Each structure stands twice: as structure tokens, then as C-alpha cells.
Amino acid sequence: MLTAYDHSSARVAERAGVDLILVGDSAAMVVLGYSTTVPVTVDEMLMLTAAVTRARRRALVVADLPFMSYQVSNEDALRTAGRFLKEAGADAVKLEGAGPMLPRIGALAEAGIPTIAHLGLTPQTATSQGGYRAQARTAQGALQLLHDAHAVEAAGAFALVLEAVPAAIAARVTRELGIPTIGIGAGVDCDGQVLVYHDLLGLGEGHLPRFVERYADLGDLAVEAVERYAADVRERRFPQERHTYAIDDDELAHFARLLEQGAPVVIDEGEAL
């Protein structure tokens, strides 16, 4: 699984053969500049999801339900999730938590809306977990996680994201569940893994969690390329003749005569670029 937020990144994911594309609410920070995932709206997420699904050929597209778009009631959850499938073309949705969220998962499953659950570190409610910290690192915490994992499966989730939990605990959860687990900072024994497009390509800024692996440093390459462009413009090295379009000498002379005569403007359809 790859977390991606726009048409071009989704096309890369498709060409690379990624199985699932998650339009994560982490777009709030990565794309929209918010400090957390909390402020992102349903309409913002719908726009991003639709851009991704327009590139989809084979991958399953999963959309995150934004904070407070599903927590209040089953009706809210159904209404929001339905919009992601109907308006944005998503194949499935993802929501965070167990406990009070179990009826939401059940209602979505009953309505035929494929739903992925998310346990461990849940960014939408990270403040209540003491911040962005690894979870289930005590015996009681691990037991609760295992209990919640069974509960979301029983409620109707078809897969489970496990974020920032000890590898040994994620392995136990994976062995016990009949649905696949997708890990992020949860060890190699999960059935699948997910990373953020910008993180693995080195396009982000700031501190990265320890579970991120950078497979390229495209951010530095991008800055270097833009610096070269800006320098070439300032020194008038760009554009060169090969970047411009010519006009026939006779037409140029005709243009000069028209200007001298004060001729009226006639719209020219031009030519294809």
C-alpha cells in the first residue's frame, strides 16, 4: 500500500504495481500545510481522492474518513463514506479506532461499503494517546490491541492497519486474524506494508518517524533543479532559441505594416503547441 494524494503520484503507484493506494488524511500536513490531520475537511479529501481515482487502473483506492466525519453517528459515517464511493470513485474507506467506532464499521459493512480499520497509533486522536508515540508497549496495552483487532474484524472490517506497535505484537495480531494486516512501524510479519509517497521519495521536510525508509532523495534533486532554472532565467540563459516559436519573415514584415496602418485586430486561431 502507498499513501498518495494526487493524480501524478497515483500514476507512479500504478506504474510501479502497487496493490492499494491510500488517500490518507495525512494529506492535511503533506499537501495542505496543516500541522495535524484534524483540520482536513471532507470536501478537501473528496477532491484529492477523485484525482487519485482518475489515475487508477488496477490498484484498490482507499480513502481516509476525516476527523469528525464519522464519529458522531452511524448515519454520519454512512453519508460520508457513501460520498467517497459515489462522488470520488473510491473502492473502500478507512477509519480509526475500535470501541465506540465498532458500530460505525458494522453499519458500513452492512451497507456494503468496504472498510479498513486502523489501530495502534491513531493520528486523529493522537493527543489522547499522549502524542505521536508507539502504542501497545505494555502487556495490558498489547492485550487491548489484540482485543480491539478481533473486535474490528468481527464488526466487518476487511483489513486492518497497525501503526507504531511492537513487531512481536503485530505478528501475534496477524496470526490470529482472518483479515490481512497492513503495517506501518509494525514489523515485517504484517501481511502488507504502507508508507507515504513523499516520505519514501524524500520529498517531505522535517523529522521522519523511525519506521520510514527513504528510497530516494528527490527533494534535494527538485531544489537543485529549481535553483538552476531560476539562475538561468536571471542570467538570461533560458529560454533559448530551441524553446521559442518562429514567425515567417514575410508575416513579420506584414505585421509591421499593419501596425503602421493602424489596422484592426483579427483573431488568429494559431497553431497547436
Radius of gyration over C-alpha positions, nearest whole angstrom: 25 Å
What is the CATH topology descriptor of the largest domain? TIM Barrel
- What percentage of amino acids are in beta strands? 5-15%
Output the strand order for the largest sheet: 8-7-6-5-4-3-2-1-9
Portion of residues within helices? 25-40%
CATH architectural designation of the largest domain: Alpha-Beta Barrel
Alpha-carbon distance between the termini? 38 Å
How many strands appear in the DSSP assignment? 9
The assigned structural class equals alpha/beta
What is the number of helices? 10
| CATH level 1 name of the largest domain | Alpha Beta
Describe the structure in your own words.
This protein has 273 residues and is α/β, with parallel strands linked by helices. It has 2 domains: 2-218, Phosphoenolpyruvate-binding domains (TIM Barrel, Alpha-Beta Barrel); 222-261, no CATH class. It contains 10 helices and 9 strands. It has helices at residues 7-16, 27-30, 42-53, 74-86, 102-110, 139-155, 167-176, 197-200, 218-234, 249-261; strands at residues 2-3, 20-23, 60-64, 92-96, 115-120, 159-163, 181-184, 192-193, 195-196. The chain has a 9-stranded parallel sheet. Helix 7 (167-176) links the parallel strand 6 (159-163) and strand 7. Helix 1 packs across helix 3 (42-53), helix 4 (74-86) crosses helix 5 and helix 6 runs parallel beside helix 7 (167-176). The longest helix has 17 residues, at 139-155. It is elongated. The mean pLDDT is 95.
